[in-house]
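for the record, two folds in this file. i put them one after another cuz i was lazy. first one right below, seq on top, structure tokens after. the second one comes after a little note so u can tell where it starts
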Amino acid sequence: MPSPALSAAHAPAPAVPALPQHTPLVAAIRDGLVESVHYGSALALAADGTAVAAAGDPLAPFYPRSSLKPLQTVAMVRAGLELPAGLLALAAASHSGAAEHRQRALRILELHGLSVSDFENSSDLPYGTAEREEWLRNGGGATQLTQNCSGKHAAMAATCVINGWPVKGYLDPSHPLQKIVKTTVTELTGEEPLALSTDGCGTPLFALTLRGMARAFGLIAQAAGSAGKHDGGGLGAPTAEAAVGLAMQRHPEMVAGEGRDVTELMRLLPGSVAKDGFEGVQLVGLGDGSAVAVKISDGGDRARMPATIRLLEALATASGNGIDTAPLAGIGTAPVLGGGHPVGLLQPLEFLSTPVNEAL
């Protein structure tokens, strides 16, 4: 009788789902030779929702990962969460784990009579390189507080307290909090989730399309832009979308961290709301309601921003919205090094086309 290990080795492999029709987006060029190519899909939506530029398979379902956080935070604000702007931005963050990030996550807990013991996220070291090295030098290990989603989890627990919901089990898809999150995600994206999974931190994760996610970010950024014109610089936002968008715009260092490209993009592109996600995901919404969305097929993080900047340039040209993408050039590429010296570039390819698919 064959051993269980031998039987498993000869068991038929599980069927592979249909592969998205991705296209080359970004290449690493070393001394004139293409060394590596990152495939993916991309989409730019005008303010009216029209697709003005696309590449690959923008209607293929994918997991947005942490780019869902602004949508989840909108749901929490709709459910009664009220926080100062800096703390609200942290709720929508994949933070680097700096001292200010950890302190503000603790502040959210303190304001609602909670503690780190109420967290249900996974444990991890700080996400930022410098922040992680400093934490390790001081004898730190992986914790729930230093995990990059701790601001979101503090806000989720706080939202439960505000509504009288049980804090324990707040990540269960059947929990009232997660039901509100799903309803909000469906409304903002205009899509029913195509699949349900679990994110790295333990939060329910929905499969959506680049079109749906771009639509959501356009709505959030547009709401923030409209509110910001009338509130005299304060956070007096009339909607949850505006509150979240304004908080992210005014505290980009909370959304990611110093030295992170998402923080830099929001500083360089006024009126934008930007969020990255693991596995090569990037979303950017603009104040007029337009937006771009990128998914790198191999999950390569280095290709995410070059493709995004190229997409923003195409959006500016197609829509005539007056956005100045020139300041973004520095984060739209990266040197390829040899012996510590530049010998090439990581650069976007000419991947965009005008959409002809009526479904877009």
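(here's the note) second protein begins now
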Amino acid sequence: MDNKDRPVAMGLAIIAAVLAVVVFWNRSISNQGLEALARASLPLDQALSNGKPTLVEFYADWCQVCHQMEPTMAQVKRSHQGTLDLVLLNVENPLWEQELEQLQIRGIPTFLFYGANGSLYGRSMGLHQPEQLAAMVDALLHDAPVPFLDNSGVTSELTGTSQYQNSSVGPRSHGQGSA
């Protein structure tokens, strides 16, 4: 390497290092939102038995749609503190395998809406606009029929367990089959 090429190489190395730090920082920031919401959640059995309506979200750290929903979920938590239990369950945590199977969770994000008595009002999958989720939560809080339950947005299919291995949809495909 010539002496005149060293400043260029050094500059490129610095740019690459800065970009690596930025990418790592952005990834850790985005994961903190979902993880923080999950850590702040009540245990599922406690939420379903404390007399408050409950919104449960099944999510994964790798799910882009789940990350898109994170600001909306954080807003729901802030807006309904004390009147609604918000529970986030990471599908990658083996602790929730029984719930995944029992509740037939096939894609994420999956939202389950439970009344104050702990009974399931309905489910919805995929990306929802903030105003849609707000209307769904409002209906749940007022013991009214929950709208948009049949409207599924973009999802990520679950893979990695024997019941999902035959799927042609990969975990990062958000519901679009491979060619």
